Amino acid sequence: MAVFSFGSCPSAAAQAKSPQGKPAQGRTAAEKTAPEKAAAEEPKLLTIGSKAPPLDIEHWISNGNGKFKPVTKFAPGKVYVVEFWATWCGPCIASMPTLAKTQAKYIDKGVQIISISDEDLETVQGFLETNVRSSKSDNADKEGGEKGAKEVAKAETAKKQTYAQLTSAYCLTTDPDASVSIDYMEASAQNGIPTSFIVGKTGQVEWIGHPTDLDEPLEQIVADKWDRAAFLVKFKKEQDHDSLMSKLGAKMRKGDTKGALAIIAEAKKSAEGDAATVKMLETLAFQVRVTPIFAKIEEGDVKEGIAELDEIINTATPGQKSELNMIKFKLLVESEEYDAASKALLVVAADKNIDADSINQLTWQIYEAAKDDAKFSKALVDAAATATEKALAASPKSGMILDTLAHLVHYQGKLDLAIDLETQAIENSDDSSDEGKKEMLMYLKELKKEKAGK
């Protein structure tokens, strides 16, 4: 999966999916009656080294102040940056100054930047009329000396500049039928914008990434020093992961767990010998198996869902069992299956892979739910007290755990024990904040007042 350090937004194609994974627009009659061979024929990924598809852009809004003409086919010997953006995408807008500077830097070196939205022309033109947002550095304090004054002046200038003026340095376009986005973004399994494609002098895709990372690869490509093969090795692994996740998402939206697991099984065969990838795929398979079960429980089919979850727990790794037992407990509480939740909590408390602080967080939440509810499940409160005792045995000097146990036993009616535990909590309150220590002292005071009958 491609990770962009400067932030990205879901692409329009990724957004325009229904919960079932179909495009928001309906299929045509021809598509509905077409043979299913289209589904069987896996489209070839557009990747590094692929021939760049021609451009079929409907609206060319700016042209680099007259320096560029619309492009359909890529001219040999020239370099192009094909970038995808949208008016609603904050990181896309934040990248515009970088694109303008990059175009200015390479204007005389045969580089043309083409930025493409798939929104309607009116939406894009309306956005371009707005003023450029100033950056944090533009908001320099006027008392910051000469440098600060220059930054303030820069900010004032920026406020007067529109996005139309800013983006006039390169080719800003929009293609409402999204044909170019399909040919590039979907074809290369890219789900986030802004995304840039560098098309090199031979018409091949040389680089794909975030526009703020353009400079180094672009410089090397222009100078004929780019190592395409080395970048392909790195990028292909990320791209294969993105493609896999896209396919899994489509299967899961349709409720096809078996189909999703089959895709993962095939990926594991291809990754044989790559221990890290195989481990990642096994984790993914585990998540695919349990996700529909969680949904079933949350939708109210608790009994059947828990039974299916228990089957997976029985065959899971120790780490997976710990995670699932925690989730099982929380799901049972949310479903108000308190007797079953009580038993599940004791299983969690006995798990050596789950630390004392995690158990304490769970049991404190139970106390919070029970403290003002006289009808709250006694069985669950008793289980919480037992679980907290186990946590305390593992961490006997924890003031926070002692405090939780004091609250629980007081709820159970054991006033003297609560006073003793809260006294110990205060004596061992180094793991508590100053505010926490104050609350402990106040609680002990309340307990003693209750003991005195006041």
Give short descriptive properties of this protein.
454 residues, alpha/beta, Glutaredoxin, 20 helices, 8 strands, disordered N terminus
* CATH-defined architecture of the largest domain: 3-Layer(aba) Sandwich
Largest sheet: spatial strand order:
2-5-4-3-7-8
Poorly predicted spans: 1-6, 16-40, 135-144
State the major sheet. Answer: 6 strands, mixed
* Global shape: elongated
What does this molecule look like?
There is one protein chain. With 454 residues, the protein is α/β, with parallel strands linked by helices. It has two domains: 9-21 and 43-227, Glutaredoxin, CATH 3.40.30.10; 316-452, Alpha Horseshoe (Serine Threonine Protein Phosphatase 5, Tetratricopeptide repeat), CATH 1.25.40. It has 20 helices and eight strands. The chain has helices at residues 12-15, 29-33, 37-40, 90-106, 121-128, 145-160, 163-167, 179-186, 215-222, 228-253, 257-270, 275-298, 302-315, 318-334, 338-349, 356-370, 378-394, 399-411, 415-427, 434-452, and strands at 9-10, 59-60, 79-84, 111-117, 171-174, 192-193, 195-199, 205-209. It has a six-stranded mixed beta sheet with strand order 2-5-4-3-7-8, sandwiched between helices. Helix 11 (257-270) packs antiparallel against helix 12 and helix 18 (399-411) packs antiparallel against helix 19 (415-427). It starts with 8 loop residues before the first strand and ends with a helix.
